[in-house]
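hiii, so i know i said id send this last week but things got crazy w the move. better late than never?? heres the sequnce for the chain we talked about at the cafe, plus the structure i predicted for it. fair warning i was half asleep when i ran it
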Amino acid sequence: MNTSTDSQFVTGTRTNGEHAVTIDPPALPASKLARLTGKPNGTWTVDDLVTLVREEGIRLISLMHVGGDGWLKTLDFAPRDESHLRDILTGGERCDGSSIFGMMGINAGASDIILRPRVESAFLDPFADEPVLVLLCGHCGRDGKPLVESPDTIVRLAVERLKRETGIELQALGEVEYFLGKRPSDEDVYGSDDRGYHASSPFVFGEDLRRAALAILAEMGVPIKYGHSEVGYIPAGEKENRIWEQHEIEMHLQPLPQAADAVVLTQWVLRNLAHAQGMRVSFEPVVRQGHAGNGLHFHCSPTVNGQNLSLGKTNEQMPAAAKWLIGGLVRYGGVLMAFGNREGSSFLRLSQAKEAPSAVTWGRYNRKALVRIPIVATDEHGRQVSPETIEFRLSDGSAHPHLLLAGIAQVMTAGKSIPDIDKWLYDTEAGQTQGADHGATIPKGFDDVAVALRSARAVFEAGQVFPAHVLDRTIEGLERQKALIL
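okay and structure toks below
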């Protein structure tokens, strides 16, 4: 269907004398749909997708969406004709909201909801035997308005409020850490505990799977920064005859809703690849006690008019937006554990202090701090090759990325109101004044998180972003988790 004359999009055939010569699709742009449509990601229309379905012989449509548990859900269609296809792409379909958002406190008496597709999110299912066009969806209630219990709605409302009240738009990227597990064999030539950082094959068995994931995500239109092996390595033991090694895939900066989707899609791709290869994949905060755990760090970059802000070389040079974000993350970081640290082993990961923050501080480059400002690579002329970011290091692989990023936007807005923000930052900076009581501690268990969320719930309810009944159910869930552990 490609009619573009832009060389980066040209595919198809050309005539060479009497013979037709096939031209392989170029590697760039990375997204397969961008190559097929001749349009960049995010600019597609319903007409574009209808043409794509017709010309590529696509028989199935899948609507995917994120539930209250943070996992992808799927609803499949086999369009009868073009009219039916257009109805799916424009109107979506109804479903039972109580089964998807029951844990979010949705009213069971009015739980019919609508899945509303987002055309710009389309991709081809890389794991389907039949060609399947996938669209990610938001959720609407019976009134046609965005569903207040939907994590997708909540993160979008948080973004809108942040922009409305501060003039700032926030971008983010997630670092998806995961362990791959396989049965040992005679061919294994692996390293030792917690020494796998940036290891290459044959000393890691998961390199091919990780690279396959990078290529698939790029084809899907999920922008990726890089991937590598991580420090974690767990040898086979008496209780479990399985070797585990750790890897990481880091996303590219995007607006918060898309950054959250990218994390969920990355985990989905990794689960599918591991299953197909007879391996296990785990995003658990701690796979085995005493070994490095799986973090899900988020890097955030405040932007104004699409431009990423420079964070300055000193605190005095730091823009106000960065101070609000750092101040909010340090002050309310423990509360964010309600959305970013949802498993019992989340607290074990923190108590072990292996590649995890051990103090409620922030710092430039300090990996033991809760919040840090990493260095940025530059070229030989000193030009930064990527934007500076503020890294939140508390969350782990159990996080609900949509709710966590919504919470980060809310605490950034709240950070604007911290009195004497410069003194706050000085007192909470690693290596500076210690011991001052700023009310910021890392909770030791679910009961501590529940107490913290009760105390700070006004920060999250502000602007009608997190509905009160959603926070009620979140607190109840934290208290139940405590009871289960006890």
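btw The longest strand covers residues 169-182. thought thatd interest u
miss u guys!!
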